Every structure is written in C-alpha cells, then in structure tokens.
Amino acid sequence: MSNKAPVIAVGGATGRVGGRVARLLAEQGVRQRLLVRDASRAPALPGAEVAVVGGYEDDAGMRAALAGTSAFLLIPGHETSDRVSAHRAGVASAVAARTGRIVQLSFAGAAPDATFTYARDHWATEEAVRASGLPWTIARMNFYLDVLPEFVLPSGDLAGPAGDGRVAAVARDDVAAALAALLTGDDHAGATYELTGPEALTLGEACVTMARHSGRPVTYLRETVEEAYASRAAGAPTQIELDGWVSTYTAIAAGELARVTADVERLTGRAPQSLGAWLEAHPLALAHVDTLG
Ligand SMILES: NC(=O)c1ccc[n+]([C@@H]2O[C@H](COP(=O)([O-])OP(=O)(O)OC[C@H]3O[C@@H](n4cnc5c(N)ncnc54)[C@H](OP(=O)(O)O)[C@@H]3O)[C@@H](O)[C@H]2O)c1
Predict the structure, then answer these.
(1) Does the pTM of the predicted model rise above 0.70?
(2) Whose CA is nearest to atom 20 of ligand 1?
(3) What atom of ligand 1 comes closest to residue 142's alpha carbon?
(4) For residue 147, is it within any domain?
(5) Does a structural domain hold residue 152?
(6) Residues 106, 43: contact at Cβ < 8 Å?
(7) Which of 21, 78, 143 is the pocket-test mutation for ligand 1 (most atoms within 8 Å of CB)?
(8) Range of the structural domain that residue 56 is part of
(9) Mean of the per-residue pLDDT values of the chain
C-alpha cells in the first residue's frame, strides 16, 4: 500500500456500522484513519492508523485527526441532548482541516418536523454538512433490521404504536457496504441516497417472519401512544429517550419509513438482505424469547 494513497477518516469506528465500514475498507487495501475516543477499543486492521479524539466536539483533536484526509465518514453519535452540536463541531473541524469531502450517515425522512424525533437531529446535521462548502454525500438509513428482534420482549410481544405502517428496515451490514462504496467511489458529490431493505413490512408481518424463523411465539401488540409512554417509563428514562423510543413507532405509523429504494444494490452491486435472510444468518437473534410465550 503506497503511503501517498489518500487516507479516509472513519468516525464511529468503535461502533457496529463504523467498525464494519473499517473492516470493508481494510479488506480492499484502503488507507484509513480510525477516529476513536478510546484507543484500546479501536479495531486492529491492516492499513489503519488510529487517531484518538475527545469526540466530534474536540476541535483540536479532530483537526489533527482529519489533517490530510481525502474523506471523513460522519457516523452519528449516541442520542444525547448535545449530539447535534457535536456533529456541527465535527463538520467545522473538517472544514478547518480541509478534508476532501464528507460522507454523512443520516436517517430516512430527516426533516425539521420528522415524526421520529432523532431524525430531526439528523436533519440539523445534514444542514451543517450541506452548508460546509466541502463536497458532501448523504446516506439516509432506515431503521436497522438488526434491531427488530431486540424490540421483542421475552414474553414474545413486540409492543408499539406503529399501527399498520410499514418499515423498509435495512441490515447494518448493507448500510456499511453502501458507505464503503460511497467512500471509495467517485461521482457521489451532492447526492443523497436512501438505504433501505428490499421490502417494507408492517410490524405484524415482521412478527410473523420472526416467529416462523425462531419457532417462538412473536406477536405484534398495537399500543396507543399513551400506552407506549406508560410502558416505557420504568427506569426513569429522559424525555428525549422516551420521545425517541415512542416516535420510532409513530414514524412507522405515519408512513415515514415505508419507502423502498434500490440504492443499496445500486451502490454495492448486491441486493440488500430481507428480514428472513437476516434471521437465517442470525439464528440466535430471538433466543431471549420464552418458548412458552
Ligand atoms: N437505524 C437505526 O435503527 C439506528 C438504531 C440505533 C442507532 N442509530 C444511529 O446510528 C448510529 C450508528 O449505529 P451503530 O449501530 O454503529 O451505533 P454504535 O454501535 O452505538 O456506534 C456509535 C459510534 O459513534 C461513536 N460516538 C458516539 N458519540 C460520539 C461523539 N460525540 N463523538 C464521536 N464519536 C461518537 C461511538 O463511540 P464510542 O464507542 O466511543 O462510544 C461509536 O463508535 C448510532 O450512533 C445512532 O446515531 C441508528
């Protein structure tokens, strides 16, 4: 690998999507710099340097980490109240460091008035990216397929106020493959992609698929919005968390996650995984569900 080759900066490299992107880039022999908050948790990959930063909000650390990079993958951070300001700071550091371009992982239906409250954060981050003056590409993810089994309680109930709305959930692996393609490919400047699975399912249909693949009783329980807030109140979550959890479902009910696109296949050359295929590959995903219901 030439040490003159461009270096791609990968944010969120200790996380599940950023870590997968980093592995895919390493497999392709791409030079990269992993932006991490804890060096001991950085994945060990050939061709990867590690840059320790105090988060996207650490301007001096981010400028140093982004210096000389051809692209910066902005994986959104955890859902904290100061997340947008951290993302904005990261974008400002990228501008100051003259990184070549920004690839942002955003969320389907990102808008200032999106039903899913966290999608409003993603919109605010998009606005900063678009205003940065750097070439940018935005990839809006749907909900992860991977989390649908996690929504199922040990009782087998998947409870939420999603009505009969549909969700075009996408596997983390497919999101990562699309991001790796965006980081290594050309001609994506100014483009916004929407990363979805191959189908849009109601939660009732998703439960039927999960029950069939696991042999366990998985049932969709339609909650009202009031019931959803009440059933999630244990453990004293913050209002931000509660609103995020409940609006996960109301956004599905509102039809804001229903669009299926061909963007994953267009970018990766491979059809995205369906829920059934994902469950085949992850046979223990519903092992926490009581077989007696
Ligand atoms: N589509 C969906 O269904 C869905 C579901 C859940 C979350 N998300 C969003 O998608 C993102 C990526 O998903 P994932 O599964 O890869 O999440 P993940 O495994 O939790 O990884 C998040 C990554 O972001 C880093 N991070 C968090 N806050 C940061 C900050 N202020 N500055 C710099 N880095 C920061 C974390 O670093 P540390 O390891 O140091 O904490 C970690 O590397 C999540 O962070 C969240 O915003 C989407």
Answers:
(1) yes
(2) 15
(3) 1
(4) no
(5) no
(6) no
(7) 78
(8) 7-142+171-195
(9) 96
Look up the CATH number of the domain holding residue 56: 3.40.50.720
Q: Evaluate: CB of 48 within 6 angstroms of ligand 1.
A: no
Residue 277 lies in a domain: no
Q: What is the pLDDT of residue 3?
A: 59
- Tell me which residues of the chain have a pLDDT lower than 50: 293
Q: Is 244 in the pocket of ligand 1 (CB under 6 A)?
A: no
Q: Under 8 Å CB-to-CB from 197, ≥6 apart: which residues? A: 142, 145, 168, 169, 170, 171, 174, 260, 264, 272, 273, 274, 275
Answer yes or no: is 107 within a domain: yes
Crossing angle of the two packed helices 117-130 and 83-96, in degrees rounded to 10: 20
Structurally, the chain folds into a number of domains equal to 1
Q: Which of 62, 63, 29, 24 is nearest to 43 (CA)?
A: 24
Number of the ligand 1 atom closest to the C-alpha atom of 248 = 3
Q: Is residue 61 lining ligand 1, measured as CB closer than 6 Å?
A: no
What pLDDT is attached to residue 192? 98
